[in-house]
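Extended Data, panel c. Modelled sequence:
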Amino acid sequence: MRFAVRPTVGARHMMLATGLVAGLVLSACSATPSDAGGTVSNTQAAVAEVALTTGNATDGPAFPATVDSVYGELTIDAPPQRIVALTYQGADILVSLGVQPVAVAMSEQDIVDSRPWLSDQLTGTLDSGLSNPDYSVNIERILSYQPDLIVGDSWQIADQATFEKLNSMATTYAGAIKGNTDWDVLTLALGKAVGEPDKAAAAIADVQAKFAASRGELEALQGKTYQFVRFAMSEGFAFGNGSWLEQFGLTPATNQDNSMQGAGISLENLDQLNADVLVIWAYNDEQGVLEADRRFQDLPSTQAGLLVWADEKMAYATNGPGPLSLAYVNDVVTPLLAAGVAAGG
């Protein structure tokens, strides 16, 4: 979830390759959530906590609402009317809550190239100039939209001084923690902030239901192992955080490094990519190099038809997840895995 991704193709590839799925930590939908890849949030407990601390139609007024954030508690006195979203993840979540930002830090081309789940979803202004070339926030540009709520993240609003400057003008939410925040925690927090806690809980439940249905369709894969890597000839294979694959009932292979702290796997040792299901993002468009390698053709996943080629869209969808992008991941990956199962995988 947590790194800057911006308009130029070179910059996008560099940043995504450096931290592919660096912060994707999904709440496990299965009965036994995995602890691989970082903190797995307890969604049911989080939903219960929101129900206790935030009013709704039956419990009373939703405002004032208090939201915990990386820079301390934020109190929001009334429903925000003019929200500026500085991340595509924030925009995804807000739209899922039925709330339209007045401006979002992206361009139409960004949506076409790498965030198709946001196509025709946003009615506000798409303004990539809300971020500077160094990925910091453009404070003057943000304030030109006269926001009453600014939704960003700690990699953008990286210090107390920047936060205080923005927050003095409009309530500013910069994520729950420094680093990687679970998508469902963000959804619940923004649900509180905009007065839609019930919709937030419903959006999370809807995502869980979609993945539960997919697990039912992929019964033969339950408990099978996965690996998730990016590939470049110059680097070999580097592990990405593949915890999202656990939503399909898969488990990490013994050497799957969801912490992404290890050395990865060299091309010479590609036989170590021996999981039942293998997902690869060849981010320098070097897929053909692997497909021509006899050793690659002999991998268990290749032989079983359970090899999935990720692309930039998939990288963004799993790197900054929200209800819409997770539905996209489910819709794309489920039939690919189902086809492998049907072919005897």
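The first strand starts at residue 65 and ends at 67. This feature is highlighted in the accompanying rendering.
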